[in-house]
Design goal:
Elements (H helix, E strand, L loop, with lengths): L2 E5 L4 E5 L7 E5 L10 H19 L4 E7 L4 H10 L3 H18 L7 E4 L4 H13 L3 E3 L5 E3 L23 E2 L11 E7 L7 E3 L2 E5 L1 H13 L3 E7 L3 H16 L4 E7 L2 E3 L2 E2 L10 H6 L4 H10 L6 E3 L1 H23 L8 H19 L4 H20 L5 H17 L8 H13 L8 H4 L6 H16 L3 H13 L2 E6 L2 E6 L4 E13 L2 E11 L6 H19 L14 E7 L5 E5 L3
Parallel strand pairs: 3-4, 3-12, 4-5, 8-9, 12-13, 14-16
Antiparallel strand pairs: 1-2, 6-7, 7-9, 9-11, 10-11, 14-15, 17-18, 19-20, 19-21, 21-22
Helix pairs in contact: 2-3, 4-5, 5-6, 8-9, 10-11, 10-12, 11-12, 15-16
The chain binds zinc ion.
């Protein structure tokens, strides 16, 4: 079944077939590494990951190139402000971006290409453009693309630039104007700015030229697919087409895929609206990377996605269902044989799943047959009507689901641990949810090592040591269950006790204020200051939720009240107790 995908260039759904049998050659615009990636960025990268994995599922190899923009207006400005070279400024953001992709299980493209490592190739392209009369140099030494030389300008964005002003120029990398202008290919060096000494003069590339130069470098003059966020259609992709096709006289890409915007709570995401989230923000709030992945891919790429926390909670529950079922089916003791009904259902689910993905990557429709299958199989398991071959067939469907969705296998501990460690080393521990702060700090591999130690101790009949290991794992919130086939372990929902004294508390016009002292929190391995500021904020929140509202108008003064607070896996339970 070929993959059918909307093509921005033709304005219709076309089959996406590699021109070259060896692999589908695709280029996706990558990040500008001047800040941490937000969930709108990651929606685009995740949807391109869905495309990539669907192609692989359909048996099509992929040669996927992604650029990393490590020089542009914003980077130069920010690095100047920080007083450091641009490479020093971008390096941590580039590694954070790659870590974030890994947290979200976005597969790494075959080729990552940094702009600053391809300056020669860009200079060559500017020279070629000058030769054909499509580029000119201004008196101050910058180079511009001559829009008048490319009559097809606007064919991707379907914008009509008939009234374009000849010779009008725009020198910033990003612009939103519908009126087309000659755009910068190469910007002459300004004092104090990063620049390169090249045959076309000292300066630095404009933003658009890098993608033309690097895509052709790695994928040839014409490749199968070019992808990016919808905001790149104009001007960035329109400009790429103009730059490349003016030189090659061949189409740059045959197919163009664009991922629609993400809204948060129905509004455009922005820092001033308070609805701006990086991936790390969400991990620190305690949401799992798998849930963020599932939420961001479950709305098909051509639909606007309205991201909400309810959606994240729904995704968390869906993953729980998938994992619980997978574990139940894998561990069930089944008789050999099969049932006609389950075999047929597994086959139909697989076919419907692949058909939905092949139909313009309809991820929402692709989920449905999988959850239908789980429902039916759970009922059959309850009735003892699942046999060995049924299990094989159902597990094969789940494996094919996970080949694209990749949320059943549990890899959530590492991204969360990583985000908490990052917050600690960047002075942002106050943003970590208390539940995460109090969670075990043992990594999966540390748990496994302790388990090996315990089993060695048992073999040596050193039961005291074995019990001690079990006890220390329990302290870290890890519980064990022994069976003849080995020891299984799981992380418990967090239960930690929080004790503090309130020396002064009051309610005024509906707002609570309290002075809290002697806060003690039983958390292992924390520095007190880190935890206390967060715990106080949490305590305030819990107090506001739990204290009886009919008494508290009065001031309590110095009377001491002790609260014992238990943090459960969901909402904290708070029980006030006035000491005698
Ligand atoms: Zn690009």
């Amino acid at each position: 079944m070929p993959l059918r995908l909307f093509n921005t260039l033709t304005g219709q759904i076309d089959s996406l077939v590699p021109e070259d049998a060896a692999a589908l050659r695709m280029y996706a615009c990558g990040p500008t590494v001047y800040d941490y990636g937000h969930i709108g960025n990651f929606r685009t990268f995740l949807q391109i990951d869905v495309l990539r994995r669907t192609l692989l599922l359909l048996g099509i190899s992929v040669r996927h190139v992604m650029n990393i923009t490590d020089v542009d207006d914003k980077i130069i400005r920010n690095a100047q402000t920080a007083g450091i070279p641009i490479g020093e400024y971008t390096a941590p953001f580039e590694s954070a971006f790659l870590e974030d992709l890994e947290s979200l299980r976005v597969q790494r493209p075959e080729q990552l290409a940094r702009a600053t490592e391809h300056i020669d190739r860009m200079v060559m392209l500017v020279q070629q453009l000058a030769e054909v009369g499509a580029a000119y140099q201004t008196d101050e030494g910058s180079w511009y693309f001559r829009l008048r030389s490319f009559p097809e300008y606007g064919k991707l964005s379907k914008k009509d630039f008939d009234g374009m002003e000849d010779g009008a120029r725009v020198d910033v990398d990003e612009y939103e104007k519908d009126s087309a202008r000659d755009f910068a290919l190469w910007k002459a060096a300004k004092p104090g700015e990063t620049s390169w000494d090249t045959p076309i003069g000292r300066g630095r590339p404009g933003w658009h030229i890098e993608c033309s130069a690097m895509s052709m470098e790695y994928l040839g003059d014409t490749f199968d697919l070019h992808a990016g966020g919808e905001d790149l259609i104009f001007p960035h992709h329109e400009n790429e087409i103009a730059q490349s096709e003016s030189v090659t006289h061949k189409p740059l890409a045959r197919h163009w895929m664009h991922v629609r915007f993400l809204l948060v709570d129905g509004r455009k995401m922005s820092k001033s609206e308070g609805n701006f989230y990086t991936l790390r923000d969400l991990l620190l709030k305690g949401y799992k990377a798998s849930a963020i992945r599932l939420a961001l891919i479950s709305v098909p790429y051509r639909h606007q996605h309205n991201f909400t926390f309810d959606g994240l909670i729904e995704a968390t529950a869906a993953i729980e269902r998938l994992r619980t079922f997978h574990q139940r089916l894998t561990r069930a003791a089944l008789q050999p044989g099969s049932t006609v009904a389950l075999q047929a259902l597994a086959e139909k689910s697989q076919a419907d799943y692949v058909a939905a993905l092949s139909n313009d990557l309809n991820t929402a429709e692709a989920r449905a047959p999988i959850f239908d299958l789980i429902r039916a199989a759970n009922t059959a398991l309850d009735q003892g009507q699942v046999f060995g071959e049924d299990r094989d067939a159902i597990l094969a469907v789940l494996a094919s689901f996970d080949a694209v969705f990749d949320v059943i296998a549990d890899h959530d501990a590492e991204p969360t641990a990583h985000a908490v460690a990052w917050a600690r080393s960047n002075g942002r521990v106050g943003e970590v949810s208390l539940e995460l702060l109090s969670r075990s700090r043992l990594s999966d591999s540390q748990v496994e090592a302790l388990l090996r130690e315990r089993s060695e101790a048992k073999k040596r009949r050193n039961f005291a040591r074995a019990d001690e290991v079990r006890g220390s794992l329990a302290d870290e919130g890890v519980s064990l269950s022994d069976s003849p086939t080995g020891t299984q372990w799981r992380r418990n929902p967090v239960t930690r006790h929080l004790k503090f004294d309130i020396v002064h508390w009051r309610e005024k016009t509906g707002e609570w204020s309290a002075k809290i002292e002697n806060l003690a929190i039983e958390v292992t391995g924390q520095t007190a200051i880190e935890v206390i500021s967060k715990a106080q904020a949490e305590a305030m929140r819990m107090l506001a939720n739990t204290i009886e509202r009919d008494q508290p108008g009065e001031e309590v003064g110095d009377r001491q009240i002790t609260f014992t607070v238990t943090l459960g896996s969901k909402l904290p339970i708070c029980s006030p107790r006035v000491p005698a």
